[in-house]
Specification:
Bound molecules: ligand LTSJ6FE6, adenine
Number of helices: 13
Order of helices and strands: HHHHHHHHHHHHH
Helix content: over 70%
């Protein structure tokens, strides 16, 4: 691997880690952990997320390197996914050591490794491109087939342990797997447009991040919401609340901000935590930063949007 390719893998991973941290610290985020709240969680706070995100960064870089290497010798997408799975399990083990056994970023690891690998591949293309739609489509190409097989296998299992697996068997809700299989429609159709629209209106990073969160919450089939109470109405309720927040102007109006403050209390009372939307939010920010900087140095120099919020 050349020095330039090493630099690219580092920059991709740095932007991904920045995005995971930006998601975690931003507020108000009903039910989620932030810099000012532990949301619906009694077992983790923002410092748990800081430790977890920094532990995961080397695995994001390793995934980007796998993508860069794959783009050269074409090891084949099934082999690449198998290597990412092994990396994902090691990253999860590292996360659990860093958090004392708490699941902060299981979904963020899964999504981030696949997207970092896809971004590694596109970075080696003729244009060195980092177009979000190209990266998301490629990510779906890497993981789609094995994930569709996982869903088929779930229907044959007698003992389903994971929430996502149960949701698929009971209601055919595909959750995180569906997002990847379909090439991240929630990000491309909702998350990225709302994030960029907020930034273009002059919003600071925190405001744009939270506006994007509500945009994602309004459409995502987030099976995390089923962890505490396996009732699919929790998904539709969360989507309806997010839509209402957007209709009232999101963080851009006093009415929207007042409604969101009420949601924070309501989600804690109902023990709702939209962790899946939080994962997709982090991925949205990373795709935006990659596109802004075409895989070059992202966080090492003042960014138009990041320094805007400083
Ligand atoms: C492929 C897997 C990730 C699938 O895992 P699983 O079968 O367990 O599926 P789910 O339970 O449905 O989802 C797992 C996590 O994925 C996030 N998520 C859920 N829905 C979506 C969605 N629609 N879009 C995107 N992401 C989604 C979510 O993760 C986040 O929430 C977790 C924190 O919330 P919390 O409520 O605290 O969760 P818990 O602590 O578990 O509950 P409590 O104890 O607090 O009550 C955190 O993980 C966030 O990231 C879901 O939790 C899995 O099979 C897998 O990882 N496989 C191995 C690795 C692999 O295959 N890698 C391939 C390439 S890397
Ligand atoms: N900020 C956050 N709070 C709770 N769960 C999460 N999963 C991902 N980000 C999260």
């Amino acid at each position: 691997m050349t020095a330039s390719q090493q630099d690219t893998s580092y920059s991709l991973a740095e932007a991904m880690t920045y995005s995971v941290l930006a998601e975690a610290v931003s507020w108000p985020s009903p039910g989620l952990v932030s810099a000012v709240s532990t949301g619906s969680h009694g077992d983790m706070d923002i410092y748990t997320f800081l430790r977890s995100a920094l532990r995961i960064q080397p695995y994001y870089q390793a995934a980007a390197r796998l993508g860069i290497e794959e783009s050269g010798d074409r090891t084949g997408r099934e082999d690449l996914f198998r290597m990412l799975q092994k990396l994902g399990r090691r990253a999860e083990a590292g996360m659990l050591r860093a958090t004392g056994g708490v699941n902060t970023h299981k979904g963020t690891i899964f999504l981030g490794l696949i997207l970092c690998a896809a971004a590694g591949i596109t970075s080696q293309g003729p244009s060195g491109g980092a177009e979000p739609q190209d990266i998301c489509r490629l990510a779906g190409g890497i993981a789609g087939s094995p994930l569709r097989k996982q869903l088929t296998d779930i229907l044959k299992e007698t003992q389903i342990t994971s929430t996502g697996g149960r949701a698929y068997r009971e209601w055919r809700i595909r959750g995180i797997r569906g997002e990847v299989i379909d090439g991240f429609p929630s990000i491309l159709q909702q998350g990225l447009p709302s994030f960029r629209s907020a930034l273009d209106q002059g919003a600071d990073m925190r405001t744009a991040v939270i506006h994007c969160l509500f945009s994602l919450m309004s459409v995502v089939q987030d099976t995390t919401l089923l962890n505490r109470d396996f009732d699919r109405a929790r998904i539709s309720y969360t989507q309806a609340c997010a839509l209402e927040a957007l209709d009232r102007g999101s963080l851009f109006t006093s009415e929207g901000r007042a409604y969101i403050r009420k949601l924070e209390q309501d989600f804690q009372l109902r023990s709702l935590s939209p962790g899946g939307s939080a994962d997709l939010l982090a991925m949205t920010v990373a795709l935006h930063l990659w596109d802004e900087h075409q895989g070059g140095e992202v966080c090492g120099e003042p960014l138009r949007y990041v320094c805007h919020s400083s």
